[in-house]
Amino acid sequence: MRRAHTVEQVRTAEEAAFAVTPDGALMQRAAAGLATALADLLGHVYGARVLLVVGAGNNGGDTLHAGARLARRGAAVDCVLLSPDRTHHGGLAALRAAGGRVVQTPGPSYDVAVDGIVGIGGSGPLRPEAAALVGSLSHLTWVAVDTPSGVGVDGGLVDGPHVAADLTVTFGTHKPVHLVDPGARACGVVHLVDLGLDLPPAPVEALQEHDVAALLPQPAPAAHKYTRGVVGVRAGSADYRGAGVLSVSGAACGLAGMVRFVPAGSLEEAAPVIALVQAAHPEAVVGTGRVQAWVVGSGGGDSSAEQLRAALADDVPVVVDADALSVLEECGGVAGRPAVLTPHAGELARMTGVPREEVEADQLGSARRAAARFGCVVMLKSRHTVVAHPDGRVRVTTVGPPWLATAGAGDVLGGLVGALLAAGLSAYDAASVGSWVHGAAAALARPEGPVSAAEVARAIPELCARLLREGP
Ligand SMILES: NC(=O)C1=CN([C@@H]2O[C@H](COP(=O)(O)OP(=O)(O)OC[C@H]3O[C@@H](n4cnc5c(N)ncnc54)[C@H](OP(=O)(O)O)[C@@H]3O)[C@@H](O)[C@H]2O)[C@@H](O)CC1
Ligand SMILES: [K+]
After folding, report:
1. How does pLDDT run across 277-308, given as a tens digit for each residue?
2. CB of 58 sitting under 6 A from ligand 1
3. Which of 46, 98, 203, 253 is the most buried (most CB within 10 A)?
4. How far is the CA of 88 from the centre of ligand 2 (A)?
5. Please, what is the end-to-end C-alpha distance for the chain in angstroms?
């Protein structure tokens, strides 16, 4: 599990660590890890040209000590001080002693620029002087120290000038900004340096491969299709036939024992949709019956309210997707039952009466508030999908290629989450595991190129088999 802690949690853990370590030891650990990461990035240290941009606090201290380590190994290290009167004394002395130079303006070219402007002590966007300097150097490769300066650490908010890093070297633990967009986009690749901190449970996490392997449902030796769980899909309509097929494709990934498909309207009206579903998935059973979880909404159009009411009449977990999201409240909501809502930013904006840009700007906060308001798990679908539990916990999905932003992928995801619910996972696990598997299946289906929703669905069994082979 990749764990992210808030600034307050990190501060508390650091205080405890300071009490039992020699003065400056933590900063030296951080600086050593940073210098190693910079050396790896540079490939060669001797003769490398390095620019440090240093602010007023300990973030600048880490940066100066790392710069000193590189200068001792033969790098040419220049340093711009943004608050010369408040620069970390020890760090600056070490840099000077190692042969590093303080410059008023940066030279013409560098192999890397290091952002030591501000770390977890920062608030708000870059101030004008720092913003002007960073803006004039945007062509350089940037390494952010702990966090990219100007980006919100706890919420991942980006609301003004900030550093856009190629690599972020963070210390002690991840912070939410490293996982959650839009802030995560400003971090680039994230590298964690262990400081040996004693940390509490993390409010924000990202599942890793072995976590998903441990959570995947597996059939008991004597299982039959009903004990493995039946997932019911109420999706598709005369106008949106493909949505029914793709929802069933996600549900029929093999993680549940059986799929039921219940189209809207009479059997005559639904005949074309049924024909498509049966052609693609002859194993799916058409018609109502007992299920352990429902998936409702994709391509449902005008039938969505009727379909959602019918699903809610059964006392089983439910995935509320696409068109069903807009009729959720008129159907009485899902508070108090295991349920997953799967909106993208536009859908969540409509459901909560907030402009879409605000949802996109604060994905962590928006998903958390929606989970609390609707009383169920909310999966805000995006580049880094945010799965929020009503109690405030969050899991972020950091796998999945940008090619996954393709029509029908959401239908497959809804079906997949439904299968995991039917197999007995909690709503929180089903949503976060489903989102991870969906992203990883897309990457497996087509590692570096365009992928269709149907191909993602087809890759799910192989992806799961690989996970189970590797084991937790
Ligand atoms: N101590 C240790 O041994 C260890 C320390 N560690 C390191 O310490 C870092 C935290 O250090 P920190 O607490 O000194 O705060 P830090 O992030 O450097 O910045 C504070 C200064 O920035 C300023 N400022 C604020 N906002 C700003 C903005 N938008 N734009 C520009 N400036 C802004 C603000 O100035 P002021 O508001 O007072 O003018 C304030 O003085 C942490 O991230 C990690 O790198 C770890 O490696 C573990 C070991
Ligand atoms: K920084």
Report:
1. 999 999 999 999 999 999 999 888 889 999 99
2. yes
3. 253
4. 14
5. 11
